[in-house]
Amino acid sequence: MKVEQIYTGCIAHAAYYVESNGEVAIFDPLREVQPYIDKAAKDNAKIKYVFETHFHADFVSGHLDLAHKTGATIVYGPTAKPGFEAHIASDGEVFQLGKCQIKAIHTPGHTLESTTYLLIDETGKEHGIISGDTLFIGDVGRPDLAQHVIADLTQDKLARMLYHSLREKIMPLADDLIVYPNHGAGSACGKKMSKETTDTLGNQKKTNYALRPDMTEDEFVNELLNGLVMPPGYFPKNVVMNLKGYESLDEVLKRAKTPLSVTEFEKVIQQEDTLILDTRNASDFSAAFIAKSLNIGIDGSFAMWVGEMISDINQKIVLVTDSGREEECMIRLSRVGYDHTIGYLKGGIEQWRKEGKPVSEQSRISAEEMQEMMTSVDSVLIDIRKKSEYDAEHVEGSINIPLNRLYQSLDQFPKDKFVILFCAGGYRSMIAASILRQNGFTNFVDVIGGFKEIAERTTIPCSEYVCPTTLL
């Protein structure tokens, strides 16, 4: 039996490729399925099953396209009611894959249908568990997501289900089993995930707070629910796509791969319902961009911030990208359900400028320049990191407006004072800068390198959280 984790860092997602004697099972595949098909072909193997651990919220799974292209059977755990043909496994059902076996273990809690799959090798030895969002390394799945789709499934109900799933289904398993989770650090599906992406179950029993054997049910619920923040707005929409079905990625890309000349691009962006999404890095964007563009760099947590900052999953999008990265951007948009890219600027910003079209610029400053500016300019410091980051350490006197609350907080940005904007490293601050520019703000700069550079290169005082700071 061959087990391969296929990890995609930008969305902290792990799919799994399991092969035995010419048969393959894919667990929780990404939207783009050709790499799995190619891998199976290289192994002279046939994809027999597509196993889903649950209806995912943070990405659109590739189960439908993969089943359509290979004839594989889609498998969900008990209680799942998908809007397409699938095998609904019973608790304890065993699936034969080549010479190995896969046992479905119903583990509700993250969602009602959440299922863990036990891998049993050719000798009959239990090898590991593909745990989905039931058990992460260092954490467990948050139980508050399903209520955004089914109101009756409260976070308290699911948390109590998860307590019993862990103690009655997972913890009795052997310590030497390998835990293969669906996500790692950076995913919004948990709050304390490790940067490690596999571990032994025995070590998790020793180190994972949620597996402490002496925890009562109430203690577990309190610890699990404490500190949860609102999930990204696109999560419920992705659940619905995964549950009901979606358009084939091939069709989405066929539509998106429309090269637009400068003249065509101008006509398209004059339509009020079309968004210009510029995916270049912050420094290139700041030097020259088309007015009203939203900058979300492809080399950061692109999909997550698209989901956070573009509220309408059906938003029409036209792209400005680095040359040769157009399709990559389209695929990564579709991973989180943004399927309405209608084209891209052929030749990029260089062609736009070559044809004499106007560009905007956004000023940026170094941390050292920020220190000088604070003594000479009547300025307001706005830190757009997460509240947890701000609470851990922040510039004294700064105001915390997390990026994902920016649209709701625009009235907190003064127009009669100079604003100095920063995040952790400069990626998020340029997203914020592009949004401020869209909304008519011009009297601000962002800090290159963000808080990291401020802390390392200046004598600006920083401290732990004391009390909320506001503009009032």
From TrEMBL:
One of its GO terms (biological process) is glutathione metabolic process. PROSITE patterns: RHODANESE_3. The keyword Membrane does not apply. It holds the Pfam family Rhodanese. InterPro entries: Metallo-B-lactamas (IPR001279), Mito_Persulfide_Diox (IPR051682), POD-like_MBL-fold (IPR044528), Rhodanese-like_dom (IPR001763), Rhodanese-like_dom_sf (IPR036873), RibonucZ/Hydroxyglut_hydro (IPR036866). One of its GO terms (molecular function) is hydrolase activity. Keywords: Hydrolase, Metal-binding. Residues 270-361, 375-463 form the Rhodanese domain. It comes from the Bacteria. The keyword Cell membrane does not apply. This is MBL fold metallo-hydrolase. It comes from Flavobacterium sediminis.
